[in-house]
Amino acid sequence: MRKIRGTIALILALCLAGITAYAVYGYLNKPRSKPVAAPVKAEKPPPPPIQKKFSQSVDAGMRAVTLSLDAAAGMPHALSAGDRVDVLAVTPAPDLPEGRITRLLLTGARIMAVEDDPQTKGRKARERSVTLMVTPTDAAVLATADPAAKMRLILRNPEDETVKEVPVTAFAPAMGIDVFRPQQRDLETLIAPGMRAFTLEVSPTDGVGGIFQPGDRVDVIVTCPWGNISLQSQDKPGETAEIKETHRNSRIMLQNIRVVATNRSLAWAPGPNPAAKRVTLEVTPEDAERLTVLADSKKGRNMIRLVSRNSRDHQHLATPGAELIDLLSERRPYMRVDMIRGPLRKDQTFYR
Questions:
Q1: What is the largest CA-CA distance in the chain?
Q2: Tens digits of per-residue pLDDT, 31-45?
Q3: In the chain, N or C: fewer CB atoms in 10 Å?
Q4: Where is the Flp pilus assembly protein RcpC/CpaB domain (predicted)?
Q5: 107 with 163: CB under 8 angstroms?
Q6: C-beta contacts of 143-148 below 8 A and 24+ residues apart
């Protein structure tokens, strides 16, 4: 009996040991669940960066000006933002067909943007827009010159801060390149108070090869024909007259007259000594009347010529004039008489 109870106890112990071993084995081989992480609070995404406006890239006190330029002739190769350029303006030359004048408008302007013409639609751009940063004064200069001038850009080193004055240059096909000299046209400075301006046509034989400059001094010589006439009736004015003899006389009418302008000085012309076709003299009102009656009597073959003189020589000389008949013949006048008969009057010269 005791053996049976011992056997039963042993069996129960073995069963309990097996159950315990199985439970331990199952516990050890059971997949363990991962630890649950503590919930993390969701952070807000950073706000998108504020898009900077193009106008905010303009420096304080400066302005942005856009120019449309020819991509082939008006712009250097491979321009980009940050480059510095000089701006030239090319305009027609006054009084010269096909002439051109080039002026330097701006120096060292910084490029803000370069864009191709959007209307090209994939083709090679013919025009490019260049935006420059300039001062308000320079912006006004560009706005004034842009409609009438062809703009050209000259690329320069961005570290080059030198500013050099460049003279205005002019070009004419027949005359080449020369410095353009602005012409004086202000009558307040050309004509002195109390004086008058009188313009005469001159020839290449006047003066020194027809060359006159403002400030020159000249004498005015008048050559005109004159003669004695014989009337069929000495007592009735308006009767048919007959010219008995003709003389030709040259005389200095005015001396030490100042040249105030020429047709060349009032319009650009290259070269230091261009010949003039018209000369403007500064004369008194009385001398203007004398020149007018002489100049308007050219149908009578009057001739007015200018003789150049030293600008520092202000001496007035008394000259008798010259008679053509005295130069070509041996006769010399010894008496000149004014003959008056009623309303008629004539000069009678007697020769030896």
A1: 207
A2: 666 666 666 666 777
A3: N
A4: 53-156, 187-295
A5: yes
A6: 143/65, 145/89, 145/91, 145/105, 146/67, 148/91
Q: How far apart are CA 300 and CA 224, in angstroms?
A: 8
Q: State the Cα–Cα distance between residues 101 and 182, nearest whole angstrom.
A: 11
- Separation CA 247–CA 37 (nearest Å): 134
- What token pair was written down for 49? 């960066």
Kindly tell me if the per-residue pLDDT of 274 is higher than 80: no
Of 269, 262, 279, nearest to 201 by C-alpha is: 279
Count CA atoms within 13 Å of residue 94 on its CB side.
Answer: 10
- pLDDT tens sequence across 86-111: 999 998 887 677 888 888 988 999 99
Residue 133 has pLDDT above 90, yes or no: yes
Single-letter code of the amino acid located at 66: T
Q: For the chain, which residues make up each domain, given as ranges?
A: 56-179, 187-351
Band of the pLDDT at 185, cuts 50, 70, 90?
Answer: low
